[in-house]
Design brief:
The chain is an alpha/beta fold. The chain has helices at 11-23, 34-44, 60-69, 87-95, 108-121, 157-168, 176-184, 192-206, and strands at 3-7, 27-31, 48-52, 77-82, 100-103, 131-134, 137-140, 145-148, 151-153, 174-175, 213-216, 220-223. The protein has two domains: 3-123, Rossmann fold, CATH 3.40.50; 127-230, Arc Repressor Mutant, subunit A. Bound molecules: calcium ion (CA).
Length: 232
Amino acid sequence: MARILVIEDERDLQRVLDFNLRQAGHEVLSALKGQEGLALAREKLPDLVLLDLMLPDLSGTEVCKALKRDPRTSGIRVLMLTARGEEVDRVVGFELGADDYVVKPFSVRELLLRIDVILRRGASEQPGKAAIDFGSLKVDREAHRAWVAGAEIELTPLEFKLLVTLFERKNRVQSRAALLDDVWGIQADVTTRTVDTHVKRLREKLGAAGDYVETVRGIGYRFVETPGQAER
Ligand code: CA
């Protein structure tokens, strides 16, 4: 259940989206033009904007740019609706910070699924955001502090970086080599063993929240949203 703004000048599509999004339990705001949509976004601060690329006044990329430029609206998720042949704009859309896109004609079912995925990612996972608030785990990136179930845990700078790195790539397996590169940087004296040792210690310190960090046998590690589905 989210507040979704649809900026789309095709009235039929606008109607279909409005109906289906409401059916799915969302609050829907509609605009037929870019300027109007931008004004609505600033006033109502929706969770997500469905943004058509080809609008009669401002283009979708301009709307997206304007949203991302303004700190008040930069956190609003953007899903681009593009027509075939808008390949270039599509890429630009991502460079502008759009979260996803669908190509017209699309199935409403698929669109709803994509919307769910984007909304589930949650505001706390946006890159550059200072705070992580995930289940029993809380992390303040700027202050380099972490809490599990309200109790602060002491992490070394490396453990902290390891935790944040795994979290930011949630549900994606990170190989030991990749973690070495990203967390330790290129250092001659560390081996993949080092990763295992640090992950083990990190898990111990995380206590109950340690289950979020899963071992993927033969490959590496992964931060999971629902622990217990893979072997440790
Ligand atoms: Ca259009």
